[in-house]
Design brief:
CATH superfamily: Rhomboid-like
Strand content: 5-15%
CATH architecture: Up-down Bundle
Number of helices: 9
Helix content: 55-70%
Largest sheet: 2 strands, antiparallel
Length: 240
């Protein structure tokens, strides 16, 4: 992912300024409404489009593609679209329309793929149940939030529109809230949240490329071995 251009942070730009964000929100709205209408008429609809680990393992593979485009509740649809528009518009103005579309597709698919093994791991070690079910652009939202934190870790976000927090702290806060909700309610879709955040980090940092990760590890080892040696003396003119 290329470096961001000058950005104004989170805002609500006009739809014509962020065409891909606007189109994605429109598609999510249309698919969600049509799925519910079809469901009310036939009894089959939105439930067949959302992500479900058990269903995907039964080879209902279309769910990997359709789940970020459907919301099954009015509350989830309205708030999901608002927050998605907020962060996706930042991403589009910072990185460009093509990168936003690519990031949305790859992060959604990758988060779902990671959520399959993660759901079993979460159910094994966490004190709550992960149903392995998800819907809407939440995974892409989590990925973009992590991308924002990687790009500008010290940027300030009004968490809940009230509390100013650093971008990196907001990521930790959301993970903490997901854990709290899971413990208090006995269940939470924690695996898809983790999957989205992992994809955001990998795509924003470039560490999904094995060669780049190996180069970083080699660089760290080289720095440790050469610690204290300077070809050019530091400003305080001491050698060590």
């Amino acid at each position: 992912m290329r470096q961001p251009v000058a950005t104004r942070g989170f805002s609500l730009p006009p739809p014509r300024a962020v065409p891909v964000t606007t189109w994605l929100c429109g598609i999510i709205l249309a698919v969600s409404l049509l799925a519910k209408i079809f469901e009310s008429k036939t009894g089959v609809g939105a439930d067949l489009l959302r992500f479900d680990v058990a269903a995907v393992l039964s080879l209902e593979l279309w769910r990997l593609v359709t789940y970020p485009l459907v919301e099954c509740t009015a509350f989830g649809l309205l708030f999901g679209l608002f927050f998605f528009y907020l962060i996706a518009s930042w991403f589009e103005t910072s990185f460009g329309s093509r990168d936003l579309l690519r990031f949305f597709v790859i992060s959604s698919l990758g988060a779902a793929g990671l959520a399959i093994p993660l759901s079993f791991l979460v159910n094994l070690i966490m004190p709550f149940y992960d149903p392995g079910v998800s819907e809407g652009p939440d995974a892409a939202f989590d990925a973009m939030l992590v991308a924002f934190a990687v790009s500008m870790p010290n940027a300030t976000i009004m968490f809940g529109f009230v509390l100013p927090m650093r971008a990196r702290s907001v990521v930790y806060a959301l993970l903490g809230l997901a854990l709290i909700f899971g413990i208090m309610n006995g269940a939470a879709a924690f695996s898809i949240t983790l999957g989205g955040m992992i994809m955001g980090y990998l795509l924003a940092s470039g560490n999904w490329r094995p060669q780049r990760l190996l180069n970083k590890l080699k660089l760290r080892r080289a720095r440790r071995r050469g610690h204290g040696f300077y070809v050019v003396p530091p400003k305080h003119e001491t050698y060590h």
